[in-house]
Design brief:
CATH class: Mainly Beta
CATH architecture: Sandwich
Strand content: over 45%
Number of domains: 1
Order of helices and strands: EEHEEEEEEEEEEEEEEEEEEEEEEE
Number of helices: 1
Strand order of the largest sheet: 1-22-19-24-14-13-12
Shape: globular
Number of strands: 25
Radius of gyration: 18 Å
CATH superfamily: Jelly Rolls
Distance between the termini: 38 Å
Structural class: mainly beta
Helix content: under 10%
């Protein structure tokens, strides 16, 4: 099974649909929608908690008993702005009404009812630069481990053209806390300009999994295990949205021992 999912448009605007069943794993779900202004999306209640990330555009969101009006601000993912997001506890149905054309990501993982539905605004998200030189990238922590959720971890990363990201290669596929945590992960990719591409490799120490992919706009790469670096091609900026979940909601990663030396340079 390839780890690369290309976009496939459906009648309701959905073009990515990843579930634990079709990914052959246990925790992470991910959907992406391209909704037109005025279009409504209904998401039924389930045993999954959700994080709705408004990638671009504005919407009214009704979740459980709560109504959030005019959620959103940026109009495309490469603007120098953090997104708006809505966390939805498990057991609550959601209705999204697009006020403008809307790029929407729906991240899901097992929920246990421990945290209330809420609007996560940009000023609540931490932003940081990681790396130096051609390893520089810009991170926005949408739903990090120090913010309330049962399973989900959500982050977005912008990488300038020609730079590397998720680098040096790291992994989080061993349930060995405090040294490493087990987290499945999806990478939802956007490219600017959109006709471009980036590369992503997913590989293990034993190379029993070793797949290198040319990734285009709106593709998703699934990372069930292994290291997973990204390289942005010259002339094309990279954006990706990461969704992670596992048995313990902690992000503890291990760098590839052959490449960790560069962190000291």
């Amino acid at each position: 099974m390839t780890l690369l999912r290309r976009p496939k448009s459906e009648a309701d605007g959905r073009y990515q649909h990843i579930t634990p069943e079709n990914a052959q794993w246990r925790y992470v779900g991910f959907d992406a929608y391209d909704l037109k202004a005025g279009q409504t999306l209904d998401i039924p209640a389930s045993d999954q908690e959700l994080c709705l990330v408004l990638l671009a555009g504005l919407a009214d969101i009704h979740a459980g008993e709560q109504q959030f009006s005019s959620v959103g601000e940026r109009m495309q993912v490469f603007e120098d702005k953090a997104p708006h997001a809505v966390y939805v506890k498990n057991g609550e149905a959601v209705r999204v009404t697009a006020n403008t054309d809307l790029d929407l990501a729906v991240c899901s993982a097992p929920g246990f009812g421990n945290h209330e539905t809420r609007w996560i605004k940009p000023e609540q998200m931490s932003r940081e630069q990681r790396g130096k030189g051609s390893n520089t990238r810009y991170v926005c922590n949408i739903l990090p481990q120090d913010e309330p959720a049962d399973s989900l971890l959500v982050v977005e990363v912008k990488t300038p053209a020609g730079n590397w990201s998720s680098y040096p290669p790291h992994k989080h596929d061993a349930d060995n806390i405090p040294h490493e945590s087990f987290l499945e992960e999806t990478y939802y990719h956007r490219i600017n300009p959109s006709q471009g591409f980036c590369f992503q490799r997913v590989f293990t120490d034993e190379l029993d999994l070793d797949e290198t992919m040319a990734v285009e706009d709106r593709c998703v790469v699934m990372v069930p295990r292994g290291y997973h670096p990204v390289a942005a091609a010259h002339g094309y900026d990279s954006y990706y949205l990461n969704v992670m979940a596992g048995p313990t909601r902690r992000w503890i990663f291990k760098n590839h021992p052959a490449h960790e030396w560069m962190l000291g340079s």
